[in-house]
C-alpha cells in the first residue's frame, strides 16, 4: 500500500476524538484514592485508635510525606504518558523526595523505641503483612494507570511504567498509613518501601508488555 | 491537527500529506532504504491511533518528532532481530543527499562499535555481502559474523536511544 492510499484511507474514516486531559486523569486517580480511603473504615481496615491519634508527629510525618509523594508520583506518571515527556528527571525528583521523607522519619521516633532491638522494631512477620496490604491496595490504582497508559502515547514506556508503579505504590501506602497499627518510623520506612518497590517492579515488568504506540 | 481532532477529514489529509513528506526525509537519513516506507506508514498509523493525545496548546512538531523517533527505534530493534536475514537483491535507493547524510551518520555510529562488529555490519548490512562472504573476508566463522551483527545492531540501537533528537 502506498503512503497516499494509506492517507486517503485514514482521512476518509476520520471520526472526532475526545482529547486526552491530564486534569481528568488526575481527577480519576484522586477519586479512586478517595474511594479506597472511604472504604477503609467500612471494611474494618482503619486502625481502631485512629480518632485518639490526633496530631501525633509520627502519624503526621507518615501521612504528610506519603501524601506528598503520592501526589508527586501521580503527576509524574500522568505527565509521562505524553509523547513529548521525558520522565527521567521526574523519577529522580521522586527519589529525592522519598529520601527527604525517609530522613524526616529520624525526627519523629516515638520515645522508648531506641531501647528495642532492631529485629523487634522491624517485626518481619507483621511487616510482610503490611507490605502485602500495600501491594493489594495499590492494584486498583495500578490498573487505572495501566489503562490510562494504554490509551495515551508514552514514548518511553518503561520509564512511564516505573513512574506508574511508584505512583500506585505510594497511593496504596498512603491509604494504608491510616490502617497500619505500627508507629515506629524505621518499620514504616522498611516495609512501606518494600511494598512500594514490589508494586513498582511489577508495573515496570507488566505494563510495557502489551503496550505499542 | 486540532481540526482533525474535531473530525475534519480534509484538514487531516493535508496534514498527513505534509507529515509523510517530512517523515520520508526523516527516515531516509536514519534507516536503510528498504525500511523507510514501512517506518513512514507505521508512524502515520501511530499518529492516527494517538491523535487524541495531541494538545493544541503546544506546537505540533515536537509531538510528531517524538512519535517518529519512537518508531525509528522500533524499526532499529526489528532490524536487530532480523540481523541474520539476507538482504533482498533489489534495494530501493534514495536521492543523493539522503544517501550522503545517511552514510555520514552511519559512519559516526559505526565508529562507536567494536571494529569486528562495525566491519560485519558494514559488509552484510551496508555493502550487501552474504554472511558466508563476510565470513571469508573477515576470517571469522559465519556464526561469529551473525553474532557481531546482532550485538552491533543492538549496541547501535542503545546508542541512538541515548542521543538527543537531531531534527
Uncertain regions spanning at least 5 consecutive residues of chain B: none
* Helix/strand/pairing category of chain B: mainly alpha
Count of the separate structural domains of chain A: 1
Distance between the termini of chain A: 21 Å
CATH hierarchy: architecture of chain B: Orthogonal Bundle
* Multimerization state: heterodimer
Q: Determine the CATH topology of chain B.
A: Arc Repressor Mutant, subunit A
CATH homologous superfamily caption of chain B: Winged helix-like DNA-binding domain superfamily/Winged helix DNA-binding domain
Compute the separation of the termini of chain B in Å: 20 Å
Shape of chain B: elongated
Write the layout of secondary structure elements.
The complex is a heterodimer of chains A (213) and B (167).
Chain A: H1 3-12, H2 22-42, H3 50-53, H4 57-80, H5 87-104, H6 118-122, H7 124-151, H8 157-177, H9 185-206
Helix pairs in contact in A: 2-4, 2-7, 4-5, 4-8, 7-8, 7-9, 8-9
Chain B: H1 2-5, H2 9-28, H3 33-49, H4 60-81, H5 96-110, H6 115-126, H7 131-138, H8 142-162
Describe the model:
The complex is a heterodimer of chains A (about 210) and B (about 170). By secondary structure, chain A is mainly alpha-helical. Chain A has one domain. Chain A contains 9 helices and no strands. In chain A, helix 8 (about 155-175) runs antiparallel to helix 9. The radius of gyration of chain A is 20 Å and the shape is elongated. The model of chain A has no long low-confidence stretch (mean pLDDT about 90). Chain B is mostly helical and about 170 residues long. Chain B has a single domain (about 1-160), classed as Arc Repressor Mutant, subunit A, CATH 1.10.10. Chain B has 8 helices and no strands. Chain B has helices spanning about 1-5, 10-30, 35-50, 60-80, 95-110, 115-125, 130-140, 140-160. The two termini of chain B are about 20 Å apart. The interface of A and B includes residues 6 and 17 of A.
Q: What are the key terms here?
A:
heterodimer, A: mainly alpha, 72% helix, B: Arc Repressor Mutant, subunit A, 8 helices, 71% helix, 0% strand, elongated
Amino acid at each position: 500500500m502506498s503512503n497516499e492510499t494509506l492517507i486517503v484511507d485514514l482521512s476518509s474514516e476520520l471520526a472526532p476524538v475526545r482529547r486526552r486531559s491530564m486534569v481528568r486523569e488526575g481527577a480519576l486517580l484522586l477519586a479512586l484514592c478517595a474511594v479506597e480511603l472511604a472504604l477503609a473504615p467500612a471494611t474494618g481496615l482503619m486502625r481502631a485508635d485512629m480518632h485518639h491519634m490526633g496530631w501525633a508527629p509520627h502519624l503526621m510525618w507518615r501521612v504528610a510525606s506519603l501524601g506528598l509523594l503520592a501526589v508527586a508520583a501521580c503527576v509524574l506518571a500522568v505527565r509521562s504518558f505524553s509523547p513529548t515527556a521525558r520522565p527521567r528527571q521526574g523519577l529522580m525528583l521522586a527519589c529525592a523526595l522519598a529520601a527527604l521523607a525517609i530522613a524526616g522519619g529520624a525526627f519523629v521516633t516515638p520515645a522508648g523505641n531506641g531501647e528495642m532491638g532492631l529485629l523487634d522494631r522491624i517485626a518481619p512477620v507483621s511487616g510482610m503483612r503490611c507490605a502485602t496490604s500495600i501491594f493489594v491496595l495499590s492494584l486498583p490504582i495500578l490498573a487505572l494507570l495501566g489503562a490510562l497508559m494504554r490509551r495515551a502515547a508514552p514514548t518511553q514506556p518503561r520509564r512511564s511504567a516505573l513512574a506508574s508503579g511508584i505512583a500506585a505504590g505510594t497511593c496504596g501506602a498512603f491509604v494504608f498509613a491510616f490502617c497500619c497499627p505500627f508507629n515506629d518510623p524505621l518499620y514504616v520506612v522498611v516495609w512501606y518501601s518494600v511494598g512500594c518497590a514490589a508494586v513498582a517492579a511489577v508495573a515496570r515488568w507488566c505494563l510495557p508488555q502489551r503496550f505499542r504506540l | 491537527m486540532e481540526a482533525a481532532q474535531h473530525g475534519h477529514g480534509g484538514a487531516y489529509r493535508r496534514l498527513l500529506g505534509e507529515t509523510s513528506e517530512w517523515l520520508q526525509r526523516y527516515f531516509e537519513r536514519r534507516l536503510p532504504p528498504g525500511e523507510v516506507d514501512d517506518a513512514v506508514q507505521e508512524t502515520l498509523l501511530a499518529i492516527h491511533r494517538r491523535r487524541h493525545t495531541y494538545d493544541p496548546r503546544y506546537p505540533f512538531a515536537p509531538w510528531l518528532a517524538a512519535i517518529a523517533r519512537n518508531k525509528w527505534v522500533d524499526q532499529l530493534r526489528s532490524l536487530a532481530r532480523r540481523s541474520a536475514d539476507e538482504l533482498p537483491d533489489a534495494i530501493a535507493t534514495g536521492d543523493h543527499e539522503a544517501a550522503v547524510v545517511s552514510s555520514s551518520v552511519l559512519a559516526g555510529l559505526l565508529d562507536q562499535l567494536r571494529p569486528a562488529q562495525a566491519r560485519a555490519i558494514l559488509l552484510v548490512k551496508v555493502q550487501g555481502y552474504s554472511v558466508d562472504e563476510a565470513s571469508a573476508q573477515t576470517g571469522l566463522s559465519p556464526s561469529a559474523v551473525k553474532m557481531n551483527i546482532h550485538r552491533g545492531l543492538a549496541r547501535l540501537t542503545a546508542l541512538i536511544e541515548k542521543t538527543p533528537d537531531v531534527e
